Amino acid sequence: NRASTGSGNTGASDAGSEHGTGTEPDPGSRCTGTDADTTVDSYGDIYIKPKETGKEGKLITDSKGNRYKVTSSNVKNPTVTFYSAKMTAKKVTMSRSVRIDGVRYCITAVRSRAFEGHKKVTCIRLGSKVNNIGDRAFRNCKKLEKLYIQSSKLKPEDIGERVFENVPKDLKIY
Predict the structure, then answer these.
(1) Per mean pLDDT, which range of 41-55, 82-96, 159-173 is the poorest?
(2) Residue 2: CB partners within 8 Å, gap ≥ 6?
(3) How far apart are CA 163 and CA 86, in angstroms?
(4) Which are the contacts of 53, defined by CB distance < 8 A and separation ≥ 6?
(5) Which residues, including other chains, have CB under 8 Å from residue 63's CB and lie 6 or more apart?
(6) Which residues, 6+ apart, have CB-to-CB distance to 157 below 8 Å?
(7) pTM, rounded to two decimals
(8) 149: closest CA among 122, 118, 174, 120?
(9) Does residue 28 contact residue 128 with C-beta atoms inside 8 Å?
(10) What is the maximal distance between C-alpha atoms in the chain?
(11) pLDDT digit string (tens) for 23-35?
């Protein structure tokens, strides 16, 4: 991609011309926040080369030990499905996105059986971009007390079968 140059002076020169500085996009505007390598060509134009995203289907792990499956490797809007939580976690919080290896991925779904049989989890927060919960996602989470659903996009038909089978009867869903 080619970025437009600004009017600022970087102090560098090439063949007597001054280079402008590029501006970074607002990382909070969408899930497009890939870090990028920039290069300046001999004409002073700035080129931005986004870091490579994971290939579709690849499993990646965040710093907390949670695993995600890449569902779209589109550089402008990479997405993942929440795959599984670290088995020792008591609380799991999914934000709207996760940054792994310098790439920001939107978290758009919870995979089937993602938490099934998790013995320690008591509280789960789903991010605002989650629009699908797979079959049996929370099945047999016998200590689950609270589930926060922050997405306004999630509809009843987007929730799989037997999602809440064998969870405590007093589970609170917010």
Answers:
(1) 41-55
(2) 45, 46, 47, 48
(3) 19
(4) 34, 70, 73, 74, 75, 78, 103, 105
(5) none
(6) none
(7) 0.70
(8) 174
(9) no
(10) 74
(11) 333 344 345 444 4
Residue 156 backbone phi and psi in degrees, to 5: -55, -40
Structure tokens at 151: 């997405």
pLDDT in tens, 97-155: 988 888 899 999 999 999 999 999 999 999 999 999 999 999 999 999 999 999 998 99
Sheet of 79-84: strand order equals 59-61, 67-72, 79-84, 103-110, 97-100
Query: Which amino acid is it at 2?
Result: R
Tokens of 13: 């020169």
Question: Cα separations (Å) of 150 from 23, 113, 131, 156?
Answer: 31, 20, 10, 14
pLDDT of 99: 86
Residue 67 phi, psi dihedral angles, 5° rounding? -110, 145
> How far is residue 124 from each of residues 10, 27, 69, 94, 165, measured CA to CA in Å?
47, 25, 19, 8, 16
